[in-house]
Amino acid sequence: MGKRRCIGLIAHVDAGKTTLAEAMLYLSGAVKKLGRVDHRDCFLDTHSLERQRGITIFSKQARLQWGDTAFTLLDTPGHADFSAETERTLRVLDAAVLVISGTDGVQAHTETLWRLLRRYRVPCFLFVSKMDLAGADEGRIMDGLRKLDGGCVDFTARGADFDEQLALCGEAAMERYLAGETLEDGDLRAMIAARELFPCFFGSGLRLEGVEALLDALDRLAPAAESGGAFGARVFKIARDAQGQRLTFIKLTGGELAVRSVLPYTDETGAERAEKLTQLRLYSGDKYEAAETVRAGEVCAALGLSGTWPGQGLGTEADAGEPVLEPVLRYRLLLPEGTDPALLLPKLRMLQEEDPQLHVHWNAQTRQIAVSLMGRVQTEVFRDLVRERFDTEVALDKGEVLYRETIADTVEGVGHFEPLRHYAEVHLLLEPLPAGSGIVLESVCSEDVLDRNWQRLILSELAGKQHLGVLTGSPMTDVKISLAAGRAHLKHTEGGDFREAACRAVRQGLMQAKSVLLEPWYAFSIEVGPEQIGRVISDIRAMNGEFGSPEDVGEQLRLRGSAPVAALNGYQNELLAFTHGRGRLQLRPGGYRPCRGQEAIVAALGYEPEADLENTPDSVFCAHGAGFNVKWNEVKNYMHLESVLRPARETSSTLYAHRSLDIDERELEAIMEREFGPIRRPQYQSAARNEAPAQTVTLSRQGDYILVDGYNLIFAWEELRALAAERLDLARGRLQDMLSSYCGYTKAELVLVFDGFRTPGNPGSRTVYHNIHVAYTRDGETGDAYIERLVDEIGKNYRVRVVTSDNLIRLSALRSGVLRESSKEFAAEVETVLKEIDALLRESNASAHKTRLRDGRA
Q1: pLDDT classification of 74: cutoffs 50, 70, 90
Q2: What angle do CA 274, 276, 281 make, to 5 degrees?
Q3: pTM reported for the whole predicted model
Q4: Three-class SS string for 778-831?
Q5: How far apart are CA 519 and CA 541, in angstroms?
Q6: How many angstroms separate the CA atoms of 754 and 13, rounded?
């Protein structure tokens, strides 16, 4: 049996992705005629709307054979408005081919796609198309690709240093290169699978240049996702065929699936289902073959499943997490006179099944329908789809931004649910988190207070509900919800009781908290002529936006920055008007930030939190055989458990014993010295050090010194890499905290270096963060150069370790005779030390608790 690979084609709009797909199908013999986008006869753009607009709107699949590999090719939309469709496809790919225009280079949407590939850990090949056009510069393009990742290597023009470039991509590769060994295909495949190496190819899909080389590389080097013997599958798309039959597109990750077999699964409501598969289809374009059995690695469309959804895991596969890309605008539907919105609603729900990000919203009081969309192009396509499929002409209003809410202080929320013969009470701590953290759930409640099963149920119910804020009824984000205490009744408590109590506790806490309204921002890139850049800067300032210095891009200037979505909405048309069609605006999601003019917006929206009966903050208590309602601000007078936020002197010893100790790592050293005195271990002993003044890095002449490449360590450490994908500044802060704790325990001197050379006008900085030295290099100076210079200065006279996986620095360290340690090895060392600290703290807390109990008995 030959190899099977599922390969996705992704790109920014007009990069030549669909043309490349046509070339791959044509060269493989899957199609007899080479289609063209401008001729509206492409094999994969089968929908009438796609051919009219010349863009891919829906992901499609095709099957081809090349060499020893049977490929399933998934073509995804390139326009930013349909990025959610692309994101859903990434989870089922063995590898992706990122297509980049040779004339445009790396665009803002390319960077968005790159972050998605990194988040989902998808191995990636790159193909630079349109190299036959004027203005395509291979050197310039490679420079841009290396800014995405230093592992991008040109596989088309293999120069004399090709092997050295490969060696620089991975530690194992460097070791083999230094030993004089040759890297085999298996080595390269492993590096690609680990996202250390990203092969780059140049050519032209229209002229069939470079396409065979890409196909050869995919055949030899494309890794396969791990598969097991047990059945597992991932749902990535829901669609309907010409007869209206529901199609569930899945990729099998393990085992096999047979037609007429019964598939058990859980639908979105949590209900258990078991449905018979009536047909399995292997699609290629708009045609398909019926299959009796589908095996691991294949992609098929299953008929007979009525409750599946995109992102669902079947069998051994878990469901996908929350998507990264979400719409930031909501539009009300304006229906033709005489159209009953209640009759149109279930039809629109079908569209929501196919695109979950549509978020069809029904207001029963006003009988209005609203939908969430990404931008102007998607609104036009949505209107066309409704007309085509449901024979209804709809219009959309101007749209409104989708706000989020968070809190600015820590509060305790209490929920009590005790109608007759029911009982549950829940106490939650609600704490603000840094931007981009989302909702984080945890339990700090002892199992002696509340049984583990009840705790799991509460956390499960909280995770399955979208929590709305009390300012505008918008979804909450960046909040940590901790289960602090709870009580059940031996006889009368049921699972639904804790669901009611937990949701009321969240709401009651939010009513007490200082709430903050957040609005979405776009990160933008605007290209205009020099004569119009002043107008653009004035417009962005008027939007209260942020921007950097203009950059030269040929005959135009590029301005990068960010601004509120509400202000940028509609700016595309304005830009085209005053630049006479020559201006260019690219947008990508820029996260959420506190909203200016919060009071006015809250007043205008007029949300009444206490009138929202589906999200009530009130509790239900019982007296004299009947339940009665207690308003949220009086619950504390009726609750059965003591408050967990009372000062320690007011808290009973029993309750104190069940409170968890939450320690900021920046306090670890002070706590260690207070509880245990100085900690000395032979393997970490060093002489006393001299403290360096702020704004300088002055090394003492004694002890061990560790030079750390900050960004390299962040992206080698899984926890920090995930954090950096959302907010790089949070990852930097977290790293500094952990290294500070590490040095406090080991007494090592450490210099943490961050690369600031790409920041225009950056003068660099030197500071002391607690007990570690932090250096940001200046504009034009790389972190590599700074570390090399420091190594040259001190490496011959002091014991120095250089921590990096950057092989150029490692080679420099080797020449200087200092110790070299990879980022992964050092990360493991730091984690070990932090675990030792944590164990000592737990031991100390237990000892102190025993002492308090003994003193109390005395």
Answers
A1: very high
A2: 130
A3: 0.66
A4: CCCCCHHHHHHHHHHHHCCCCEEEEECCCHHHHHHHHHHCCEEECHHHHHHHHH
A5: 17
A6: 34
